[in-house]
Amino acid sequence: MFYDILLMNGNMQSSELTSAARRLRMGAIFSLVLVVGSALYAGAAWFLGLDPDGAIQVTFGGPGNQQARFVAVVSGALFALGLQRLIRMLGRMGQGERFTSRNIGDLRGFTFYVLISAIVSILLPIALSLIAALSAGAGERRVTFTFDGGDFFALLVSALLFFVVRLLGEAQRLSEEAAQII
């Protein structure tokens, strides 16, 4: 209801919102194609043990780093699931459906998968490094933990988005509840 009042007060015309949702959906589809393509490339390189030396190189954690390619596949797949939820929500918004519980649920799903993808991209290399260290012979055990500013920023932004969307979902629920009382 709050969102409908915002739309009626002229902050954004309904047709403008619909048009913006359609454009954003196209951008999300393009992003999904890039993410899936990168994950497929990393997966093929990891599975086949490729270390391409061609004119075009795409590296994940440096040439020959199979662990980083595996992490790229897993976190990329999770991010792709999130983008699919976003695309579904934007498709409904492009058809005129506004901040319904279905759309909030898909937005929540998007932010959840983005958050999980960020967590996996940080924790999975650590887990793989621990497994490799435990399976190595005595004297060869070494574990490396890396956590850079980009990882921290991705985790922070995705966590903030996740909790903001949860807040929006609660506001929508309260708005629907208040509308039923009146």
TrEMBL record:
<feature type="transmembrane region" description="Helical">
    <location>
        <begin position="28"/>
        <end position="48"/>
    </location>
</feature>
<feature type="transmembrane region" description="Helical">
    <location>
        <begin position="107"/>
        <end position="132"/>
    </location>
</feature>
<protein>
    <submittedName>
        <fullName>DUF2975 domain-containing protein</fullName>
    </submittedName>
</protein>
<feature type="transmembrane region" description="Helical">
    <location>
        <begin position="152"/>
        <end position="169"/>
    </location>
</feature>
<keyword id="KW-1133">Transmembrane helix</keyword>
<feature type="transmembrane region" description="Helical">
    <location>
        <begin position="68"/>
        <end position="87"/>
    </location>
</feature>
<keyword id="KW-0812">Transmembrane</keyword>
<keyword id="KW-0472">Membrane</keyword>
